Request: fold
Amino acid sequence: MQNVKKISVNTIPKVHKTAYIVGSSIVENLISRKEAALMSHSSFLVLIDETVEKLYGKTLFQSLKLAKKRMTVVSISPSETIKSVDSLPFLLKPFFTAGFDRNALFLAIGGGVVTDIGGFLGSVLLRGIDTILIPTTLLSQVDAAIGGKTGVNVRISETSLLKNMVGTFYPPTAVITDCNFLRTLPRKEILNGLGEMVKYWAGWGRPSMNILAKISKGVQMSDSELCSIISLCQQIKLGVIRKDPYETKGIRDSLNLGHTIGHAIEGACKTLSHGQAVAIGLVAVAKISSYRGILSVSDRDKIVTSIESLGLPIRVKNISVDEVMRLMKMDKKGGTFVLFSAIGKIKTRQRVPIDIIQRTLMEVIV
Reply:
C-alpha cells in the first residue's frame, strides 16, 4: 500500500467525524486498515456497481472476508433509473431478508449513483447505521461521495426527472478513495468527472487548466500526482462544507455552481451524463453572468472555450427550453443562481430576470 493520505473532517460540527482517505492500492488492504473500523461491526451490507464487481469484486471480497463477518451483497447497474424512490423496495429487500442489526456496516462501492444511493440507504436503515463509501469513478471521487449529502431521484413523468429531491444529510464513517480504480475507467467516465473538476477551476481557480487538460488527453500520471489532484478537489469541497454543513448560510450553495441549469438539462435529456450537463450549466452561468454585467466578456469566453477544449459539450440538442424552465422551477435552490464575478470568484443566491434565463437557454439548447 502506498501514497496514502488521511484527514478527518467534522462535516457536521460536534456530531460526526468522517475520515477521508486517499491513496493507491488501498482496496486489497481494507481489513488491515484499522482506521476504517471494519473489524468492530457485526456484518457487512454491500451495495456494489456490477461493473466494479466484475473488475475488482474478487479482490474486494477476499479482503472483506478476512474479517470473518457475514456479508450480504447487492450488485446493481448504476443508472439514474435505479437511483429512484421507486427502486428502494428492490434495493432494501435482500438486506432485510438476510438480516442485520444496528452494528452492521453499510459499504457502497461504485460511482456517484451508487454512493448517492448507498449513503441514503445507510442513513435510513434502522434510522442510520455506520456507512463507508468507496468511490470508483472520477466524478464520485471528486464530488458525489464527498460531503455527507445523500439523495435519490423522483420521476414525475416519462420525460421528466427531478434530481436528488429525496435525501438526507448523513456523513459516512469514512470515504476511501483508491486512485487505482481510475486506471480502468472509460474515457466517457473521465469526461463525466471532468465536468465537476472544471467547476472547481471556474469557481475556485484550481486545479489548473493544464492539469485538467492532461486528464482529458489521457496523459499518464504517477499514483502520487493523481492522488494529489483528487485530494485537492476533495479539499476544495470540504472547505466549503465545514462552513455550512446544512446549507443554511448560503455558503454551501456555491457548490451548486452550474447545477441549477445543469440539473434541469440532465432531467430533460436522457443522453447526457451528469458531468456533461454541469459543463453546459457552467457555460450557461458564464453567459448569464456576462449578461448581468458582473463577468467580463473575456472571462466568459475563456470559460466557454476552456470547457470545450476538454472535450465537454457547451450546448445540447433535442430538448425543449420550456421543459428545462419547468424543471428549474422545481429546483431545491428556490430559483436562485450561483454566478461568476471572475474566473475563480463567484456570488451565491443571485436572482436572474426570466428574460435573461430564456435568452441563455436558447443559446445552449439548439
Notes: The first strand starts at residue 2 and ends at 12. The radius of gyration is 20 Å.
